[in-house]
Amino acid sequence: MKISYTKGLILLGLITSIILPSCQLVNKYKTPEVDTSGLFRDENPTDTITIANIPWREYFKDPILQGLIEEGLNNNFDLQIAQTRIKQAEASLTMARAAYFPNVALVGQVDQTRLTSADPLVGTPRDRNSLAYHKETYSLGI
Question: What's the pLDDT score for residue 91?
């Protein structure tokens, strides 16, 4: 029994001595300092103008090419679908923002009821000028 217990302790110590150094519990990793200046040849870091910042009408000077690009943009169905979806999203955002505004409502209601000319209990005809023949209700609320 003592032999298996000591074998277990030796095995546990061996596994622990292998696992702890591999987890880097002792040494923290330090990133090496790298000098990045001068890595790219002929680079001017002060120049920030790119082709993405130039409008396409200024980039393409040819009027025929500008007309063809304009026609392509106007007839592009995917672009039209994207523009429609953007408008839908803006409308949904406007409706969602409108939920934060206070609500004001004006409600009106009119009820009109006419009963039969015969009395339901006895079956005899009623006078049309009686209060039970015709009923109207008006209500207005804010």
Answer: 96
Domain ranges for the chain: 53-116+135-142
Spatial neighbors of 119 by CB under 8 A, at least 6 apart, are 125, 126
Could you give the 3-state DSSP secondary structure of residue 117? coil
Q: Which helix (H) or strand (E) holds 2?
A: helix 2-22
- What are the DSSP calls for 3-61, one per residue? HHHHHHHHHHHHHHHHHHHHTTSSS---PPP---TT-STT--TT----GGGS-HHHH--
Other C-beta atoms within 10 Å of 69: how many? 14
Span 86-126, pLDDT tens digits: 999 999 999 999 888 888 888 888 877 766 666 666 666 66
The tokens for 136 are: 């109207």
CA–CA distance from 18 to each of 13, 23, 29, 34 (Å)?
9, 9, 19, 32
SS3 at position 24: coil
Rounded-to-integer distance, Cα 68 and Cα 62, Å: 10
Tokens of 111: 């009820």
